[in-house]
């Protein structure tokens, strides 16, 4: 086995920087449960879940066995020009899980970005309309169409998406509107209907509204509870499809299988990815058959049997281990623990989340709410030195994001928050080497 310095050097020389979002020099050798182990044998509790991908942790035996058996049958089987049973098993499972009494089908891809692109293509083709509405602060992918649909400054999304209109998202902590924040959700939906629809685009041109129920990459922003119902009403009124992006926060993370189930509404389409493949590349769009039957959005590797059987067993394991219910309980415990441990620090402006996605918004001071990116990058790096993995996100790169494996235990929450607390103290006491921190820019450059 090569030493870490050799691997770091090779990584710098061989792997394109355009693929890298690095917060530390972590070299992953193995993983078990909610822990990762590096090449030196040091264990880290994982509060990042590799960007919410590892819902089942890193060594689920049932998923591993299913993948192994499928690969013993054949190294590849897809759905573009053939049929394979694992794709049908997974599609049937997803159709059964999605709420709504209408004919549903499933599209398969390789990543959340693929899913967002395919969904755009299909809603435009099925509706015959020309425009899509999304939200400032959204994250819907890293290909051109995904960046055009997104609204993050670090993504350069303004360069793409001429067919996309963006509306303000109701952020209760950093409101897009000045003054009193009462009725924030109404103000945002009214902005769409009473301003956007009457100025730059009539509703008859809008094929779909794409939305995350929690805007994760822009800072784990949780909108008011009435926002999603109001958005559903708006879509129903104007014959617009509602597309829920659950790529990062779906499949149990929020304490429901699909995040929008918290609000008692139905989606027309759901976008899934990341954790769906149990560690393998897999995404899906689930929803109305008449939409998914429109246009063409196939890949040679679509519906790869090995990935689909991994997805099927992942869903089975989420149910068998009661991870949806566990996420609700553990998420409440985590949120309370973060609040009681970190809430009094002057640099903590807000702590928010749903289930096992939590965000700690770091500021210069609680009154001004000016984002504090230096604190975020320093604390994330120091946590890695102390044995905890997490990342920072946000439009200003100042929000600590916690999206651990859903198998995280209460004891592991205590352990991780204790390390986080120590990292806060070390930052405030000036004990963190800023030269080392500066080597890792994370998402924002």
Write the layout of secondary structure elements.
Blueprint: H1 4-14, E1 28-32, E2 35-38, E3 43-46, H2 49-52, H3 61-73, H4 85-97, E4 104-109, H5 112-127, E5 131-135, H6 144-149, E6 164-167, H7 184-199, E7 206-211, H8 227-238, E8 241-245, E9 269-272, E10 283-288, H9 289-292, H10 305-320, H11 323-342, E11 348-354, E12 357-362, H12 373-386, E13 388-389, E14 391-393, E15 399-402, H13 410-428, H14 434-437
Parallel strand pairs: 3-13, 5-6, 5-7, 7-8, 8-9
Antiparallel strand pairs: 1-2, 2-3, 4-10, 9-10, 11-12, 12-15, 14-15
Helix pairs in contact: 3-10, 4-10, 7-8, 11-13, 12-13
Structure description:
- This protein is an alpha/beta fold and 445 residues long.
- It is built from 14 helices and 15 strands.
- The strands form three sheets. The chain has a seven-stranded mixed β-sheet with strand order 4-10-9-8-7-5-6, with helices on both faces.
- Strand 2 and strand 3 form a beta hairpin.
- The longest helix is centred in the C-terminal third of the chain and has 20 residues.
- It is globular and about 60 Å long.
């Amino acid at each position: 086995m090569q030493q870490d310095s050799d691997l770091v050097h090779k990584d710098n020389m061989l792997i394109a920087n355009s693929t890298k979002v690095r917060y530390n020099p972590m070299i992953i050798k193995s993983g078990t449960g909610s822990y990762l182990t590096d090449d030196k044998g040091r264990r880290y509790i994982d509060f990042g879940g590799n960007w919410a991908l590892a819902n089942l942790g890193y060594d689920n035996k049932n998923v591993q066995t299913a993948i192994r058996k499928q690969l013993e049958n054949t190294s590849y089987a897809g759905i573009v020009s053939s049929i394979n049973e694992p794709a049908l098993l997974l599609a049937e499972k997803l159709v059964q899980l999605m709420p709504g009494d209408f004919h549903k089908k499933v599209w398969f891809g390789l990543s959340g970005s693929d899913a967002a692109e395919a969904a755009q293509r299909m809603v435009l083709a099925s509706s015959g309309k020309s425009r899509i509405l999304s939200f400032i602060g959204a994250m819907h992918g890293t290909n051109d169409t995904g960046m055009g649909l997104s609204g993050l400054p670090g993504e350069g999304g303004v360069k793409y998406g001429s067919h996309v209109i963006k509306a303000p998202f109701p952020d209760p902590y950093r409101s897009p509107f000045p003054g009193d924040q009462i009725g924030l959700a109404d103000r945002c939906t009214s902005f769409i209907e009473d301003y956007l629809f009457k100025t730059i685009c009539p509703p008859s041109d809008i094929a779909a509204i794409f939305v995350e129920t929690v805007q994760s990459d822009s800072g784990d922003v949780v909108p008011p509870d009435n926002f999603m119902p109001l958005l559903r009403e708006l879509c129903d009124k104007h014959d617009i499809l509602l597309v829920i992006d659950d790529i990062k926060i779906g499949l149990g993370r929020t304490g429901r299988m699909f995040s929008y189930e918290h609000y008692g509404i139905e989606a027309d389409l759901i976008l899934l990815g990341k954790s769906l493949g149990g560690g393998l590349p897999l995404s899906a769009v689930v929803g109305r058959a008449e939409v998914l039957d429109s246009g063409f959005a196939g890949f040679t590797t679509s519906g790869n049997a090995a990935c689909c059987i991994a997805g099927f067993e992942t869903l089975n394991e989420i149910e068998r281990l009661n991870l949806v219910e566990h996420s609700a309980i553990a998420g409440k415990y985590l949120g309370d623990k973060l609040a009681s441990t970190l809430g009094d620090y002057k640099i903590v402006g807000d702590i928010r989340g749903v289930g096992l996605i939590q965000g700690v918004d770091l500021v210069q001071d609680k009154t001004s709410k000016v984002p504090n990116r230096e604190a975020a990058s320093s604390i994330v790096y120091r946590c890695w030195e102390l044995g905890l993995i997490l990342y920072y996100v946000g439009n200003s790169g100042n929000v600590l994001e916690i999206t651990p494996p859903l198998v995280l235990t209460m004891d592991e929450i205590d352990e991780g928050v204790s390390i986080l607390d120590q990292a806060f103290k070390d930052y405030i006491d000036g004990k963190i080497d800023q030269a080392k921190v500066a080597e890792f820019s994370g998402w924002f450059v």
